[in-house]
TrEMBL record:
The chain crosses the membrane at residues 45-70, 82-100, 106-126. Residues 162-376 form the PPM-type phosphatase domain. The keyword Cell membrane does not apply. Residues 426-455 are annotated as: Disordered. Keywords: Hydrolase, Membrane, Transmembrane, Transmembrane helix. This is SpoIIE family protein phosphatase.
Amino acid sequence: MSQARDHAGAHRLLRPIRGRTAPLRAFAQRRATSQLTAGVPVLPLLFVSVIVLVDVVGGAGMIWLSLLAAGPALAATTNGPRGVLCIGLLAAVLGARLGIRDGVPAGELAAVLSALTAVTLASGLASSLRGRRERVLAAVRSVAEAAQHALLTPIPETVGPFRVAVRYSAAAAEARIGGDLYALVSTPYGVRLIVGDVRGKGLPAVGTAALVLGVFREAAYDEPDLLAVVGRIERSLARNLGGDDFVTAVVAGYGQAGHLEVVNCGHAPPLLVRASGSVEAVEPTHPAPPLGLRALSGELPSLQVLPFADGDQLLLYTDGVTEARNHDREFYPLAEGLARHVCEEPARTLDALHDELLTYVGGRLHDDAALLLLRKPAAPRTATAGPAAPGPIASASAAPGPIASASVASGPVASAAAACGPLASDPAVSGRPVSGRPASDLVVSRATGVGSDRF
């Protein structure tokens, strides 16, 4: 029986593959055609054809034949040595035929063909060197991408209770890696993250970024206190950095339900987006110096505790975003852009922000830029009990008096009583604060009628 099911499942899997055979075949043909045309020196061929046509129509002879040498020179910029030699050979053959047809003296024709041969050989050598540099650059890019994936490990869309999205752009486009750093890990002490910016950019800042990320990932698992995590990073940088090197960073943690801990070390303030849509900057209450400079100032970082409820979002970024300028030298308004594009999907929000940022600066950033957005989705609602059966007690539960207060403890009937608003006779739900908390932070327990904290 199970084998029959497996066999049927295999047929179900094969059906869509057969249906897609024609599109796949068409895609393969288009790819083969594009590869073939990519190796053909179309532009040099067109240039040589124009020169030949002008000479045939006008019969100018030597005036136009000398321009045939531009064909292989142009091919060296777009094609490999084989394409350059083919264009040079074609130009030499056509030039000889046209020279003989136009009656060009043998000495002058030999000089033109010799110059064409020399240009062809030089262009072939230049094309070979260009191809070698391109291969080296491709290898460097692949190594840089591998290093970036090793340092800035991809963050999943869901980490703990959060939905997360990250966008990163390096200013050194050839290397595709820069001095900005980010990490988000789930630890026994809750979800912890860091976003930072190393002084400098490009490959020289990669070593410092690797050091910070390595220490953070270890300390985030070992240290129960977020300030202790920052302290370990500071001590490691003090031992390994130079006197003028530093790292600005924001370290955050979500260890206690409903509260977010933030430590800002000289970094741009994160942006907190409430569930209502309002955007506010989380300015540090006691500004601290960047990591690596504590010995110079002697100031210690402080820990901020923020309320972080369901539906709230936190955006951490680097100065490559806020210091991006348009053609009028105006800075990019990140808070306004976030308010325009914020939605319930962090990935969609950052896609819109990143596209708008590139459009704002004209297509390319001049500094490394990192964006990390996390959102705490609303907790799924628990199934409520069915409607209370009609009866004397259910109808009396809405009436004022002792019966109304007693109905709270009567099991399923409590849901009907709660739907009528707060019960004035019960102090737990009378609208007065209980245990220092406002009544809006309390819910009525369906079983006992006693107020309980809602997280």
